[in-house]
Specification:
The protein is an all-alpha fold. Helix content is 60%, strand content 3%. Strands 1-2 form a two-stranded antiparallel sheet. Strand 1 (141-142) and strand 2 form a beta hairpin. Helix 1 packs antiparallel against helix 2, helix 2 packs antiparallel against helix 5 and helix 3 (60-74) runs antiparallel to helix 4 (76-86).
Length: 152
């Protein structure tokens, strides 16, 4: 693997912006990059990731589907949160909105919606897992067997 110049509007740019937002979510209420609070910076990078117009998609539908499954497992309150922020049906037009999870995490940390803490943590973990799998597969890795299938 080599390093080269940054390729503007490459597929990896949106994926990197999305991952960048997740790092800032971890900062939470603390001031980080450019003097911004982590939650605000996470929202900035989430918007940057979703505003890129390319011929492919981030795995937003996959994340939405997986988090919806988690919401059902975590009970009525988690499912109500999901329905309120993502819509109650999985239609073709419905996608995952990462800023809603940033907001839920901020509320849990601030002591509001504390009953959703386990769901928020599980949803954040699933989001990272789906994004990482997507990125590895796009890079040519066979994630199921953890073997690189792209030898070039």
């Amino acid at each position: 693997m080599g390093y080269g110049p940054v390729i503007s509007n490459s597929p990896a740019e949106a994926e990197a912006s999305y991952a960048h937002s997740l790092v800032h979510r971890l900062e939470g209420p603390h001031v980080g990059e450019f003097g911004m609070v982590g939650w605000s910076n996470a929202n900035f990078w989430s918007r940057a990731a979703s505003s890129r117009d390319r011929g492919y998609e981030l795995p937003l539908n996959d994340i939405r589907r997986e988090v919806h499954t988690l919401a059902k497992l975590h009970g009525e309150d988690a499912l109500a949160w999901f329905d309120d922020h993502m819509g109650s049906t999985c239609t073709d037009g419905a996608i995952w909105e990462p800023r809603a999870l940033h907001q839920l995490c901020a509320e849990v940390v601030a002591g509001r919606n504390a009953h959703l803490k386990q769901f928020a943590q599980s949803a954040a973990e699933k989001e990272v897992q789906v994004l990482a799998t997507h990125c590895l597969e796009r890079a040519g890795f066979d994630v199921q067997s953890s073997v690189c299938v792209n030898e070039s």
